[in-house]
Amino acid sequence: MLPEIEQYFRLEKLPHMWCPGCGNGIVLHCLVKAIDKLCLDQDRTVMVSGIGCAARASGYLDFDTLHTTHGRALAFATGVKFAKPELNVFVLTGDGDCTAIGGNHFIHAARRNINLTTIVFNNNIYGMTGGQYSPMTPNACRATTSPYGNLERPFNLAELAIAAGATFVGRATTYHTKQLTDLIIEGYKNNGFSLIEVVTHCPTSFGRHNKMGSPADMLKWQRDHGVTAMRYENLSPEERSDKFIVGVLHRCEAPEYTAEYQKLQEKFRGR
Amino acid sequence: MGCNIVTDLSSVPRLRPAAVVINQAWCKKCGICIAFCNKGVLAFGEGNRVEVAQPENCVGCGLCENFCPDYAINLEVADQ
Ligand SMILES: Cc1ncc(C[n+]2csc(CCOP(=O)(O)OP(=O)(O)O)c2C)c(N)n1
Ligand code: SF4
Ligand code: SF4
Ligand code: SF4
Ligand SMILES: [Mg+2]
Question: In the prediction, which pLDDT does B15 show?
């Protein structure tokens, strides 16, 4: 570890519990780089996570952290932000945590446009519990609960967030580390609900079932399948079929929930 | 309170010469750094220990540090 980022970690908790080559460590690295660039005060920054491998992230970070219950990170984060809007609140959640059990919290946090920066570690699987398919597991992929291939269609989480009302939506991968760091910075700066979907790799529970090779091979797969919007535009429909866009996907303006609430309070206090 | 200037790809300062240091206590031998080093600096040694096999080839690009999921790599700028 580089000395300049040591201050953001609970060093005594390292090495982390993630498997060899797991992408979660790279996501966390990009998060602390973004926080360092933003010069955020560690004592005024809160990390809220749910349950799962990804959600263990909060335990390694030296901020005020809240490791909550499965699917409820956004609910707890909403409470923190509502009570203390001056705090910077980040939500660290897995694809299962966020889109299965926590799916309802997700759409309503987006709909309210509450100022939270939500980072979804999308490894397309329930990693922690041994590899059951999640609502983000691609169709036909193998999981312990879909040994013959997943029958279901996955969510397009970015589109779901946009439809629900999120005001900043971006996607990166654990290969696209600079883009990921920049997206976290942009997401933080957005005064409203920001979703950053990170396509990350779970060599143990997803890669192994789907013959994706070593952790390095999974990173190379991300490099070859995550493309910029400009490149995507120029691809044929066949070429597009296995590609996804990385970068900023959506940005718009809408009233922010806690600011609206403050206005309401001031209106009645002023009487 | 830190407000450090970090470089884009990696948090390593783009300075040469760099010494690659592996923290063996944190390394999980995943092989990512070896696969992504374009200069063949790193290699698996005995017991899959990651060794800095060709230190003279290192260009200080920081890719290994950037992709190491376990923060087990540090690039040190040698004293001039
Ligand atoms: C209420 C409840 N239901 C189920 C579980 C079991 N459980 C723990 S983690 C998890 C899924 C985690 O998947 P994801 O959010 O994608 O995280 P990952 O481990 O892949 O990072 C489940 C179902 C639980 N802890 N609590
Ligand atoms: S099971 Fe998958 S997501 Fe969980 S630590 Fe291992 S590689 Fe990472
Ligand atoms: S990337 Fe990090 S954990 Fe993986 S082998 Fe290299 S030094 Fe070890
Ligand atoms: S800094 Fe670059 S050249 Fe040097 S060991 Fe790391 S990846 Fe290889
Ligand atoms: Mg998952």
Answer: 58
